[in-house]
Design brief:
There is one protein chain. This protein is an alpha/beta fold. It folds into two domains: 119 residues, Response regulator (Rossmann fold); 96 residues, Orthogonal Bundle (Arc Repressor Mutant, subunit A), CATH 1.10.10.10. The chain is 38% helix and 21% strand. It is built from eight helices and twelve strands. The strands form three sheets. Strands 2-1-3-4-5 form a five-stranded parallel sheet, with helices on both faces. A hairpin with a 3-residue loop joins β11 and β12. GO terms for molecular function: phosphorelay response regulator activity; transcription cis-regulatory region binding. InterPro entries: CheY-like_superfamily (IPR011006), OmpR/PhoB-type_DNA-bd (IPR001867), Sig_transdc_resp-reg_C-effctor (IPR016032), Sig_transdc_resp-reg_receiver (IPR001789), WalR-like (IPR039420), WH-like_DNA-bd_sf (IPR036388). Keywords: DNA-binding, Phosphoprotein, Transcription, Transcription regulation, Two-component regulatory system. It is found in: Cytoplasm. This is PhoP family transcriptional regulator.
């Protein structure tokens, strides 16, 4: 099935585009490449992608703006690739919907591994089970559709990024259990390479903005001071 996976690479550095394309094509992924933000947006409108790799600093339209526009239309994993390593750039990228942040220079093998991990989480894996019934988690007026990667609240669908969905799914699968930021990072980002409290906090904040009636007084994702966070919600028994 990997030949059905299509990835968009957007970077103004031709050597990086060619390097990443070479390694991803070895995995039998279909690759499109863009040299600037405008071209990336045009390609996105013309094709359906399973993952998008964006350079932060691109001509015409930068990666942050491209990511912001794409997030209005898709929840596929978006990975930001940049030479910058300042914390503010990372927080900015994550706050507008990026799922991961990779700093240049990078290990191509680590990049490919991260791409595979994001694809595993995003792609619908339940099709092999043969089960006609979708697995879901239901809490009062919110339902998390595990195979479709969608969330509905009071009958309306909520658009989440891949990482936001994974974070919500993990916490909702363990209601009332308290997790530290480190535990959440290792579970959702599947990495011991870097433990990043800011990444978790940014995604928690974005989730609250989307699922809470009042994000300043959250009822679903609650802070347990001095420890971390928990998902609080009564499971539907129906």
């Amino acid at each position: 099935m990997q030949h059905d996976i299509r990835i968009l690479i957007a970077d103004d550095d031709r050597e990086i585009r060619d390097l990443v394309r070479t390694y991803l094509e070895r995995e039998t992924y279909r690759i499109d490449a863009a040299a600037d933000g405008e071209e990336a947006l045009r390609l996105f409108e013309a094709h359906r992608y399973n993952l998008i790799l964006l350079d932060l600093m691109m001509p015409k339209v930068d990666g942050i703006e491209v990511c912001r526009r794409l997030r209005m239309k898709t929840n596929v994993p978006i990975l930001m690739l940049t030479a910058k390593d300042q914390e503010i750039d990372k927080v900015l990228g994550l706050s507008i919907g990026a799922d991961d942040y990779i700093t240049k220079p990078f290990s191509i093998h680590e990049l490919v591994a991260r791409i595979k991990a994001h694809l595993r989480r995003f792609l619908v894996l339940g099709s092999e089970s043969g089960s006609p019934q979708e697995t879901m988690l239901s809490f009062k007026n919110m339902t998390i559709h595990l195979q479709k990667y969608t969330v509905t609240k009071a009958g309306e669908e909520i658009t989440l990024t891949g990482k936001e969905f994974e974070l919500l799914k993990f916490m909702a699968s363990h209601p009332e259990q308290v997790f530290t930021k480190t535990q959440l990072f290792r579970q959702v980002w599947d990495s011991d390479y870097l433990e990043d409290d800011n990444t978790v906090m940014v995604h928690i904040r974005k989730l609250r903005m989307k699922i809470e009636e009042d994000p300043s007084d959250p009822k679903w994702i609650q802070t347990v001071w001095g420890i971390g966070y928990k998902f609080a919600g009564d499971k539907d028994e129906a």
